Amino acid sequence: MATDTGQRESRRQADRSRETRRKLMEATVECLVERGWAGTTTTVVAERAGVSRGAQLHHFRTRGELVAAAVEHLGAESVLDLKERAEQVHGSTPGGRITAVVELIADFYASDLFTAALELWVAARTDPDLKTVVVPLEARLGRETHRLAVALLDADESKPGVREAVQITLDLVRGLALANQLTDDGKRRKRIIGHWARMLEESL
C-alpha cells in the first residue's frame, strides 16, 4: 500500500512538473511575440505563467535555456498541426495540391513560431552563449521542416534539382514571413506563392 501511495504521489509530481514546464514555455513564446527578446525576462515569464521564480529556476537555469526550449516546444507542436492540416489536401489534383501545400508551409512560417524564433536569432547574433543554444536548435527545426516539406510535396529527392527546389521553397516562404513582420503582406504573399507553386510543379 505504501508503495502504491508513493507511486501515485510520484506521478502527481511528474504531472505538476510537466504542467509547470508547459506554462513557462507558452508564456515565453507569448512574451517573445509581444515584448521581443529584450522584454522577455525570466521574471516576466514566471509572472505570466503564474509560477514562482524558484519553480522557473528549477526547470530552466538561464533565459537562453528557457527561450530555446520554448521555441523548440512550439516548433514541435506547429509541425504536428501542419501534418494534420496537410492531410486535408492529399485528395487535390497535383497542381492544386502543390499550391495548397506551399500555402500551408507559408502559413507555418508566418506564425508566432517564426516571430519568436526571429527574436531569438537576432539576439543570438551578438550573444555567444545564446548562439551555442540557438544554432543546434535552428538546425534541428530546419531538418524537420525540410523532411516534412518533402513528404507533403511527395518530392523525389533522387531526381536532380528536386532537393534544391524544396529548399528554395522553404527559403522563399521564410523570406515572405520576414516581410510580413512589420506590415500585413498577405496579398503579395499569396500571389508569389501561386506563381512559385506553378514553377515548383515543373521542377518536381
Report on this structure:
With 204 residues, this protein is mostly helical. Helix content is 83%, strand content 0%. The protein has 9 helices and no strands. The protein has helices at residues 2-39, 42-49, 53-59, 63-86, 94-109, 112-125, 128-153, 162-179, 186-203. Helix 4 (63-86) runs antiparallel to helix 5, helix 5 packs across helix 8 and helix 5 crosses helix 9 (186-203). The chain starts with a helix and ends with a helix. The mean pLDDT is 84.
What does the largest sheet look like?
none
Overall average residue pLDDT: 84
Q: What is the helix content? A: over 70%
Strand content bin? under 5%
Uncertain stretches: none
The general outline is globular
**Class per helix and strand makeup:** mainly alpha
What is the strand tally?
0
Number of helices: 9
Oligomeric state as shown: single chain
For the terminal residues, how far apart are their CA atoms?
63 Å
CA gyration radius, whole angstroms? 20 Å
Order of helices and strands: HHHHHHHHH
